[in-house]
Every structure is written in C-alpha cells, then in structure tokens.
Specification:
With about 180 residues, the chain is mostly beta strands. The protein has one domain. Helix content is about 15%, strand content about 50%. The protein is built from three helices and ten strands, in the order ββαβββαβββαββ. Strands 1, 2, 3, 4, 5, 6, 7, 8, 9 and 10 form a ten-stranded mixed sheet that branches. The radius of gyration is 17 Å and the shape is globular. It starts with a strand and ends in a 9-residue tail after the last strand. The C terminus is likely disordered.
Length: about 180
Amino acid sequence: MTISCAYRCGVIDTSAAEPVPAVYILERYTDHALISRLGPWIFSSALSNVRPSLTQEGAVNTIRVHNEDRQCLFSASAQPATNSEKLDSHIFNSLDSFARFVKLGVASYTPATHGDALARVDLQKNDTRYEALDATVAYSMLDDLWPNAGLTFDSAVRATGGTYVWTYQGTIERELSYVSSR
C-alpha cells in the first residue's frame, strides 16, 4: 500500500476550442521510495518522497504530511459533516456541482522534469461517491508559497468507491498568460 497526495488547483483549460475544467498540480508526493524514483520516468514530473501521518480520534481524522527533512507540507483535521450530502462551499452550490466539475476535470498539468514544459496526465474516474466533510486546515505550504494570494479554504470532500485510470499524455510547452490590474 502507498499514500500519494498533491496540491491540486482547479483551473479552466482554455487551450482547446471549448474551455474545460482541468487540474494544475504543483507537485506530486508519495510515501513509497520506489514510486518516488520511478514516477518521474513514467510521468515526466517530480514525485517527491514524503512522510504522511494519519491518526483518528473518534470521528476526527488528522492528516499531516512532511517532506523528508521533516518540514510540514500540510496538516488538517476532518470529520464527516453533519449532513454528508450538503456541501458548505462558496464555489460549488451543491455536492453534485462539485462532482460534475471533478468528473469534467480529466486533464491534469504539472511542471515537467525537463525544460520549460508541463507534463499532462489524464485521469478517468468512474462510480466515485463524494461525502462532504467538516475540516480545519492547521497548516498549508501554499500560504508560504503564495503569501499575498489571499488563499481561503473553501470546503473538503472525501472520495470513495471509484475506479481510476491514469493515461500519460506527454509534455506540452508552457503557455503562460498574465492578467494585469490597474
């Protein structure tokens, strides 16, 4: 068994004729050293080795992820929401709208290991059940990476029962667009 995780940012991919939901991944992480070594060869993107800790006290699960030098990357606690079918979110008006966005977000992009490119992996998901959680984020490395971004935790969802198929699509040159405000 292995534990893998990543910071995933929901984005809109405008590279095709029709904009579609997609995922931007800062970096992928795993607790399995062999996967960490082989992953970059398979996916052309970094797969750093981490030390996750999962603990449970009653209904509350605490998740902590540290990199190999023991610096915290993420720490949070979560428990089933009072109403697991109702998502408390400012972005999604329901658990169904969240599920639709995730199902449409097939393409994921992450910095490639070579050159100024992005590695693309498509993820097909079937029969996934989503459950709303009540969660508190104690620490997120994103706050240190993007201190002026005004990041706000929106909601937490647990996915279970799904089948997943990853398909490596290769690398693409980065196209960065910037928006300036006046």
